[in-house]
Write a structure and sequence with these properties.
Blueprint lengths: L3 E4 L2 E4 L2 E2 H8 L3 E5 H14 L6 E5 L6 H9 L3 E4 L2 H9 L7 E3 L6 H9 L4 E4 L2 H13 L4 E6 L25 H9 L7 E7 L9 H18 L5 E3 L15 H15 L2 E4 L3 H4 L3 E11 L2 E4 L8 H5 L5 E3 L7 E7 L8 E9 L7 E4 L21 E5 L2 E6 L10
Parallel strand pairs: 4-19, 5-6, 5-12, 6-7, 7-8, 8-9, 9-10, 10-11, 11-12, 14-16
Antiparallel strand pairs: 1-2, 2-3, 4-13, 13-14, 13-18, 15-18, 16-17, 19-20
Helix pairs in contact: 5-6, 8-9
The structure holds pyridoxal-5'-phosphate.
Length: 402
């Protein structure tokens, strides 16, 4: 069954009429389907099952506690980038031995706390960071697991803001320096360098990108004769926003045999693939003004269109029929860049007060939202077994002065 579908002319999410939720909760609001999240996770797990990987869900995509608990129950670990994410992962019951910590700017107290909480490993992004971890581990009298994040200098063919594996980007350590650190292991007596990490970018739509990077890794490992027990491939697996993308099976087929050559423990860090297609943002039309459809959700609620020019399909909750017009769906924020969709076909019958659903907003939707223009952050609703439940309350005005 499709996650969002029309039945008797109304949009439903896993058996619940979306319009009824919007009336009850108010708009804008985010709505997620539990079945869809579970099914995406299982598809990912099945595609790579022969590698027996550790799947560390990337919290930055969506860190709502209820979603994290669902994923924890499916066996997921966590890829985190802050102590906030560590707090949430642990709160959801994700075991520390399944938590990996990335990020170019880890602070001393973050490193200390993560060591104390016994996370599995740090994905280290510079020699200076490795030195600092060694120093902190020494003070705490602990040995700490680390992977070195390589910047493999591979073109991920995605939006430049989410391309992280190119030489010009701030992420990871260059090949030469990685080799040097491995040779110089003895200078970091408190660190177990387990292996390597890559994360090439997000919404990568070409399996060859992973192939190229993994081949580079294999050549490097052989040439430098280094021991790699753990290899973390990162995330980046795509969902279909507008254009069709290869399936997760296609990605798996193209890299599994290469990865098996290494005989290392494999980690993946999918975010978008797990939750992206499982959510919608429901908004109400405030005003119709020529070609502009002004709605009550803005760039503070969903930044992707403004930040990346990202495409999200936008559909009315009432099944469209009859004549149509081409309009721009824009928010109430005081920025000309505040749009959710440009040049979209909408039914001519669309009225002020009608609801629209902005699709595929489960990832990097709420998690990138802000209070810009002093707007309240949105509620999140989870639909499960044809019942809806608030999993985050709408903020209150008091939250603005807390
Ligand atoms: N791992 C790391 C280190 C990341 O930076 C990101 C996203 O930026 C991810 C995993 C998740 O990426 P995606 O949501 O594209 O799977």
């Amino acid at each position: 069954m499709e996650l969002f579908f029309y039945y008797k002319n109304s949009l439903y999410c896993e058996g619940v009429k979306v319009g009824e939720i919007a009336e009850k909760i108010g708009t804008p609001c985010y709505l997620y389907g539990k079945n869809s999240i579970c099914s995406q996770y299982r598809k990912f797990e099945k595609a790579f099952s022969t590698l027996f990987p550790l799947i560390c869900y990337s919290l930055k995509a969506n860190s709502n506690l209820s979603l994290l608990k669902i994923l924890k129950n499916l066996g997921a670990g966590a890829d985190i980038v802050s102590l906030g994410e560590l707090f949430l992962a642990l709160k959801a019951g994700i075991p520390p031995e399944k938590i990996v910590f990335a990020g170019v700017g880890k602070r001393e107290e973050e490193i200390k706390e993560a060591i104390k909480k016994n996370i599995y490993l740090f994905n280290v992004e510079s020699a200076s960071e490795l030195k600092l971890i060694n120093k902190i581990a020494s003070k705490l009298n602990r040995r700490v697991n680390c992977n070195l994040r390589v910047n493999p200098d591979v073109e991920p063919k995605t939006h430049r803001y989410v391309a992280t594996g190119r030489k010009e980007s701030k992420f990871g350590i260059g090949w030469k320096e990685v080799a040097k650190i491995f040779k110089d292991k003895a200078s970091f007596p408190k660190i177990n360098i387990l292996g390597l990490h890559i994360h090439l970018g997000s919404q990568i739509t070409f399996p060859e990108v992973y192939q190229i990077a993994i081949k580079k890794l294999i050549n490097f490992i052989r040439k430098e004769r280094i021991k790699v027990d753990v290899l973390d491939i990162g995330g980046g697996f795509p969902i279909q926003y507008e254009k069709k993308v290869p399936s997760i099976k296609d990605f798996a087929i193209s890299i599994i045999s290469l990865l098996k050559e290494l005989r290392a423990k494999i980690i993946f860090e999918p975010g978008r693939y797990i939750v992206g297609g499982s959510g919608i943002l429901v908004t109400r039309v405030l005003y119709l003004k020529g070609k502009f459809v002004v709605v009550d959700a803005g760039l503070n609620d969903l930044l992707r269109p403004s930040l990346y020019g990202a495409y999200h399909e936008i559909v009315p909750l009432k099944k469209p029929s009859g004549k149509s017009f081409i309009g721009n769906i824009v928010g109430p924020i005081c920025e000309s860049g505040d749009f959710l969709g440009k040049n979209r076909r909408l039914p001519l019958s669309l009225k002020e007060g009608d609801f629209l659903a902005i699709k595929d907003t489960g990832a990097y939707g709420f998690s990138m939202s802000s209070n810009y223009n002093s707007r309240l952050r949105l509620p999140e609703i989870l639909v499960s077994q044809a019942k809806d439940r608030v999993i985050r309350e709408r903020e209150k005005y008091a939250d603005l002065i807390r």
